[in-house]
Amino acid sequence: MNIVLYNPRAQRSHRRLPLSLLALARVIPSPHTWVLVDDNVDSTASADLDRLCAVTDTVLFVTVMPGPQLRVAVPACRQLKARFPSLGIWWGGYFPGIHADAVLADPVIDGVVLGLGEGTVPALLEALAGARRLRDVPGIAFREDGAVVRTVGAPIAASSAFADFPYERLDMDRYAARTWLGKRTYNHHSSVGCPYVCNFCAVVNVYNGRWLPDPAEHVVRVVTRLAREYRADAIEFHDNNYFAWEKRTKEVAEGIADLGVSWWGEGRIDTMLGFAGATWESMARSGLKMVFYGAESGDDEVLARMDKGGLRVADIGSLNRLARRHGVRPEFSFVLGTPGDPEREASRTFELIRTLKRENPDCEIILYLYTPVPLPGMYDTATAGGFAFPTTLDDWIGPVWSGFSHRRSPLTPWITPGLIRRVADFETVLNARFPTHTDMRLGAPSRAGLRALGRLRWATGAYRAPLELKALLKLLRYRQPEEMGF
Ligand code: B12
């Protein structure tokens, strides 16, 4: 069988290794063959798909995130199936895993891999070749006699249990991204899942508190290979929770310290507040430049409701000061618009952000609005108020739900246009007063202009309707890292 691995465009020119598909490619056994089509970097992607899918005995494997990627994936798959009706089309990734019923309501998609692909794909290929029943493949969903069948027991293992990513099959120069971290930035993913169960995070739906890290020596080996063979000078760790284990963090930091690589990853405030001073020093010495933290809220009551493991607002401030002392920039993400009193939550969070900026102007701030994921807690409050996910892909890619996936227009029953506007206005003033360090294309004069124009509004708290700042940000094509990556 020929397997076409397809990464639909998530962000044009977002030059990052398509790790989901590389993870699958390494477990495809011969005599099957695979080829990767990456719409993020390849302008001929759609012609390539046409050519490759015309070959008989081909299966299309598509990785799908909600939002823009979904909006590209749906029409592409429909066109391909219309042209090549016998083409098998299988989807995987968080979105299809969580919303398998909506995906399978579309006749064009033959099946969904619900969790990790490595353990499932070899068995799936056997079934597609007729050597076993689909029902005997673990961790998939497919249609049978008009109903959706889900098989259980998706195997889960650390990535290091499988072969290395087949970088040698890619044009690695095309994936060396110029970012604020370095001239040749590559991305890596060194652990599966996350050990926590925050009730607003899609990772919990798939891994439910499981976290399987690659051992430190494995991570060091991969980073060394990227640095030595492919001249990486920066690494983004895309793990959901890179820093969950202090010992591993320190060992990796020590192992990569001499490579001259800058790096970034995602961590928890409570975990990293507990790290020893020596670990912070090792991390900083090894090139750690910034850490993304889920700070979530400036309201202790909301933090408790989010199952953040006892995190308090005061901890966010402590981490901000600690990170500053070590010269590692914190990037705090907040999730506004949760049930209860979202207006009060917003006011408290804005106040906290002002304090964080006062104490460490270098910290970065990212604002989201809570968008439900199907987990007990806030999701139940939403459904009780009438919230329901779309049941078809047409609805998912339609105008109403597209904004939802961007976490900007959440469609929760308690959200009001006034609150959405209030958050957007605050964000505009914040972005002008403190333009992100991660936007490489923003030159010094543009930054200075933004700061100057944003200063008065920030100083006086006059966030309402900052039309002049909105226009300037638009003119400068300001990039928001949470949507576009760095
Ligand atoms: C890199 C990344 C991006 C990149 C682009 C990724 C790309 N495909 O090109 C960018 C920055 C553009 C991005 C954007 C967004 N992202 Co994103 N992103 C990630 C991130 C950090 C890493 C993905 C990755 O490479 N993982 C490593 C690989 C090895 O794991 P994996 O993807 O899970 O793949 C395994 C399985 O899922 C499965 N699998 C995956 N695909 C397939 C396909 C087939 C056929 C099979 C068989 C199996 C399979 O097998 C793989 C190997 O085991 C994840 C979080 C994470 N740590 O995974 C979020 C994540 C996927 N993103 C998410 C979201 C929501 C978004 C946004 C929509 C959010 C926003 N802020 O607006 C935007 C979309 C905007 C846009 N322009 O598209 C969510 C998805 C949640 C959900 N409900 O589906 C995640 C999980 C983050 C989170 N914790 O919420 N993202």
Provide a quick synopsis of the model.
The protein is of the alpha/beta class and 486 residues long.
Task: Tell me the helix content.
Answer: 40-55%
**Backbone CA Rg:** 23 Å
Name the poorly predicted regions. none
Q: In this structure, how is the largest beta sheet organized?
A: 7 strands, mixed
Strand order of the biggest β-sheet: 2-1-3-4-5-6-7
Note the total helix count: 21
Briefly note the structural class of the backbone. alpha/beta
Mean pLDDT, to the nearest integer, reads 94
Bound molecules: cobalamin
**Shape summary:** globular
Distance between the termini: 37 Å
CATH domain class name of the largest domain: Alpha Beta
CATH architecture of the largest domain: Alpha-Beta Barrel
Proportion of beta-strand residues = 15-25%
CATH level-four homologous superfamily name of the largest domain? Aldolase class I
DSSP, total strands: 15
Q: Output the CATH topology of the largest domain.
A: TIM Barrel
Number of domains: 2
